[in-house]
Structure formats: structure tokens, C-alpha cells
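To fix ideas, we give here one paired sequence and structure record:
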Amino acid sequence: MPHNKSPSRAIARQGITTVGIDVGGERKGFHAVAMTDGVYAAHHSAKDAQEIGRWCRETVRARVIAIDAPCRWSLDGRSRPAERELMRKGILCFSTPTRDNALNHPRNYFGWMLQGEALFQELETDFPLCRELPISQGRCCFETFPHAITWHFQGGHADARLKRYERRGLLERAGTNSDALRNIDLVDAALCALTAFHAASGAKCLSFGEPETGLIIVPSSR
């Protein structure tokens, strides 16, 4: 398994607080991790999008927030352009349906995406959705994807079967002690927070997709 250089230690410390959020269904809720300059600072879990929004704004005072959930719905029932671009690179990902298809699924399969919609709606007033790179110096939020983050940090290699090992390893090499991250949801949230720090600090990032159906943003390995 390749071990690239540390994902964040080469970036100068700037006092930037970022948040990453893993989105689950109604029963699991949201898991959020805050980092300052790419180093773990705090975490919080809640089932309510408004509570997570308050934590981001008032408790940790985030500048940039990265979320593991679709920021927009498919317009035509096909996977979004961002998802198709990732899959062409060999990065498997969920295909986002139209909102109507998500609402009408008989087993609520896309309930977690509806939770993601609620979270983006809660945040976007204060953290506008990022529509291009590089991001501005103000506050914003964007969509990201832990499997794609891992794939890029490891130079084009990621195995979902080994995600607990690979993703904790990436955080450790970035200088983040993962002991406080007691489950994979918090580990994924921490990877999202690390990605938000890369984007906020001006490190090179990549975007997939287009603004209308949403960008998926990940760090560049180069």
C-alpha cells in the first residue's frame, strides 16, 4: 500500500477552523469534526440539522465546511456529472436521483440524501455553496466524498474494504490523533474537515462536476 507524504503538514499554520460532516439517515443523524489548521479540535453528533448548524457557527466558528452528501439533486434521473467524472477515474460512488425519486422510494433508500439536503439548506445562508476553485477568503461549504479523498491522497489507490485502516492512517500522517474518533462516521467527518482545510488554506484541490448539479471537491495529491 503506498504511503504518500503527509496530507497537511506542508501547509503553513494559519488559525483556520474547518468542519467536516458525515451525513446519515434520520436514525443515525450527523457526525461532525472540527479541525484547526488540519488538526483535530472537537467533534459533535446530532440528529437535527439545525443543531449541527449552530455548532458550526457558534461553538467552533467554522470558516469552511465540507459535507459527505450530495449538495444538489440530479436534473434528469441520471447520475450527476460530478459522479460520472469520478466513476470514469475508477472511483465508485453513489448516483444521486431526482428529488422526486428520492421522496417516492418505497424503502426510503435515499433518506440520507434528504438529510443532506436539509443540512445544506441550514448552512447555505451563512456558508454559501462553493461553485468554483479556488475558494474565496470568506465562509463557504461544499460537497466532498471520503473514498475519493482517500483515492487522491494515496495516488490513485483506495480499497473500500480497508477504509477503517486507510482513512485512519491518512489522518495520523496528517498529524491528527484519531483516538477521539471512535467510529467510521467520525473518521469520515475528519477526512472531510481535512479537505476543507486544504481548500481554505489555498492548497491545491480538484473539483468534479459543474455548478448547477454541484461540485465534488477533493485534495490534489500533487
